[in-house]
Amino acid sequence: MQQYHFDTLIIGSGLAGLTLALNLAQNQKVAIVTKRSLQDSSSTWAQGGIAAVLSMEDSADAHIRDTLVAGAGLCDEAITRCVVENGPQAIKWLISQGVNFTRDSNHETGYHLTREGGHSVRRVIHINDATGKAVQSTLSTKIRTHPNIAILEHHIAVDLITSSKLAHHADKQNENARCYGAYVLDIKADTIHTISAHNTVLATGGAGKVYLYTTNPDTATGDGIAMGWRAGCRIANMEFIQFHPTCLYHPHAKSFLISEAVRGEGGLLKLPNGERFMPWHDERAELAPRDIVARAIDFEMKKRGLDCVYLDISHKSSEFLKQHFPTIYTRCHELGIDITRQPIPVVPAAHYTCGGIVVDRKGKTDLGNLYAIGETAHTGLHGANRLASNSLLECLVFGQAAAEDILSLSPVPPISLPKWDESRVTDADEEIVISHNWDELRRFMWSYVGIVRTNKRLQRAQHRINLLREEINEYYTNFRVTGDLLELRNLVTTADLIVQSAMLRHESRGLHYSLDYPNLLPQAQNTILRRKEFELASENSVPI
Ligand SMILES: Cc1cc2nc3c(=O)[nH]c(=O)nc-3n(C[C@H](O)[C@H](O)[C@H](O)COP(=O)(O)OP(=O)(O)OC[C@H]3O[C@@H](n4cnc5c(N)ncnc54)[C@H](O)[C@@H]3O)c2cc1C
Asked: What is the CATH architecture of 432-532?
């Protein structure tokens, strides 16, 4: 076991974490802890692009308006304005780092801009259909060669080290609640290190893996949200999970997105017997907004007991499909699906976590010296539904804002922190418990807390979560931790936060749809969860 000290500890290497690191490293010693390789993140998987006001035909007011409309009354207008107004300089910063956006010499900006659902003009800058991969690869190259940035790959943060936890163990009261760093498991060496830092930043992404079907990578297990919750931070709007209508359904295709552009170009959604069903649900049929299409697919699947539905674009020419959808064509072909002749099996899938740790406009959480940025955070930008391509923008703007704030603080000398105590644990006897619980959780969350909710389904889920939590806590207290156990523990906490939030919302708004409360309440309110004092106290009494 080692103890390390850094000026800033960043947990997570998605766009939010990398942006922050590069903006701090001129002046600070920074560590990036990431549980797989530097590139493993949702950010790398982002296809479409980044929304920003770049063209003369666009305006900040128009981008703000589109964001507020999508957010269904719950966006924070001041934060939305701040993010939108900082968009153009954030893109300039990426270009200055060497990101080579797709060009268009005929456009006044010199770049090609696309238009996505919910945007009133073309404002999405991109790198073909693999924006995230190109951005992350450019920034990662800089990060890897930076002398002030230490990279700890295959290291998973276990928990935050907070003053109240230390005070509890030293048996004394501490007035200023703050964060001192984190315990981090080196997955390959199977050792837990203590990392102390003047500032700690959660940039751990979303929680799509809480659902059976998700477009998210395996890293999206809600770790930061769960760690923030355990440390006493407020968590907001977790009921708003965005579901993408069409994720490829195939035993060997984990989380492969079939872009909405396929429906845009004439793709038709069909039942296994070839019958179309979207016209029964909405007059815009396949071109209805994302949440309506996802709900319709969910309805047909549940009603008929189907494993999937089909997206058929085989009526278009082979040349057209290969030219417009090269990535989709190739991936499906690898799996034995010829999209020029066959329909594509699809299911809706959890795509984006709108809620998260409550932060201010600098990314500061309720706890001193703890920040949260990117999908882990709740800034108020997304409201009850995220506008497409606003999330990468949020990562950039809040990564820069948090850096500015951190650099304005005067550093304090590190304190010595207690080591992780493994004296009372043994090796786990039955790993099967973990894999079984992972599976169970993701299945009942899909069935009971998915696209369409009811009071009864939420109660059922709550009951099962309580049982799982008990079992997992017992496991956590008695056995040596592993990456899988940590993720499962965080998934159960995140699932609990989603269910608690969904139960508190007695209306259908944005992404939250309840058959028991199908209407909109006149006043829009955020759902804010706060831990009860006694729960926090019992959390802090757990051996470190
Ligand atoms: C398929 C797909 C397509 C998308 N397309 C777009 C798009 O076109 N435009 C757009 O704006 N948005 C898009 N999104 C959403 C967007 O990609 C994400 O919201 C954004 O990338 C989140 O960035 P982040 O830095 O917050 O988190 P991530 O990029 O998810 O990074 C989180 C990081 O934290 C690490 N981590 C997590 N827990 C721990 C832990 N306990 N210890 C150590 N490390 C940890 C992970 O390994 C990872 O490195 C898409 C998402 C997906 C899944």
From this structure: Up-down Bundle (1.20)
